[in-house]
Design a protein that fits this description.
single chain; 308 residues; alpha+beta; 3-stranded antiparallel beta sheet; 3-stranded mixed beta sheet; 8 strands; 43% helix
Length: 308
């Protein structure tokens, strides 16, 4: 994505690179009275990182060798990666996402993952024969009791976000488990997502996978490295990622761009982009519509309870 953005310029200034918003780091204040608890917290954090990394690395190795997701209606058959894909886009208001984020004291990533979990749970239940009330609540739970559904999450490992015109890719990937279940409280999807992402942040799984991929490439070549990555991706059901759009309108070699999937310019909106094999998911438009509906249900729950 950095290479693509490096080819893009601002529409009002053909020589200027687009501006990517960067999260500001909070300044830490020293407190001599709490040094003991700070040391204890550091050791506890180190233990959590060590434990989570050990478990995550084991899951990566197991997935590479034999562990696959439970067969489900959203998982494509072998060879589906070579089939033509249908790309569907929907745009939602970023203010709605921020409303849930601020009410639940989470991040935008937590909300996006929670909405996706609600959407996938809803879709799989419908496929298995679930019925939906007029208000959008699901009457009957037809989901399998134990279903393993994971996503391959790819993200940037560079120390700082932004646009780089050289240096190549520096990415890692992790296995992100989705909680497929029907919740009486829509906000439980956000809570589950936050717990999952918090655990993922306390792990070096991405650094491990990036290092292994680089080592395999240097020792055995691109075919072996690609086969290794394919084994991991094919063992999961979906790929999940998100990108931050630019702050202004952009142009590509002098041609103005009003929309770019999977990103958009400006911050008032969030684009939802779904890429599917139509042989597996024949109605991707409904998948996007259900994702928007899941956001509405979660937002309504926040407003109804006076959390906003």
């Amino acid at each position: 994505m950095s290479l693509l953005l490096a080819c893009i310029r601002q529409s009002n200034d053909p020589l200027a690179l687009p501006i990517i918003p960067v999260k500001k780091k909070q300044e830490k204040k020293d407190d001599d009275d709490r040094w003991f608890w700070g040391v204890m917290f550091m050791f506890w954090s180190f233990f959590q990182v060590f434990r989570n990394t050990l478990v995550d690395v084991f899951m990566i190795i197991a997935t590479t060798l034999f562990l696959k997701d439970t067969q489900n209606p959203l998982k494509g058959p072998p060879g589906a990666v070579f089939n033509p894909r249908r790309i569907v886009c929907r745009t939602v208001s970023l203010d709605d996402i921020k409303l849930v984020k601020n009410a639940m004291k989470t991040t935008i990533n937590d909300v996006a993952l929670g909405i996706t979990q609600a959407d996938l749970s809803r879709n799989i239940n419908i496929i298995y024969g679930g019925n939906i009330k007029d208000e959008g609540a699901i009457e009957k739970d037809n989901l399998p009791k134990k279903i393993r559904l994971r996503s391959t999450l790819v993200f940037n490992l560079r120390p700082s976000a932004g646009i780089r015109q050289s240096g190549g890719n520096c990415v890692g990937y992790v296995l992100l488990p989705f909680t497929i279940a029907l919740r009486d409280d829509p906000l439980d999807y956000i809570r589950d997502a936050k717990a999952t992402i918090d655990g993922m942040k306390r792990s070096f799984e991405a650094i491990f996978t990036s290092s292994i991929a680089e080592l395999a490439f240097k020792l055995f070549g691109v075919k072996t490295a690609s086969a290794l990555s394919y084994r991991i991706v094919s063992g999961t059901t979906v790929c999940f990622s998100n990108l931050v759009g630019t702050m202004e309108e952009i142009g590509f070699y002098g041609h103005p761009r009003a929309f770019l999937a999977p990103g958009t310019y400006g911050q008032p909106h969030m684009a939802i982009v779904v890429s599917v094999d139509e042989g597996t998911i024949p109605d991707p438009h409904q998948l996007c519509a259900d994702k928007v509906e899941s956001l509405r249900l979660i937002e309504d729950a926040v407003v109804t309870r006076g959390l906003a």
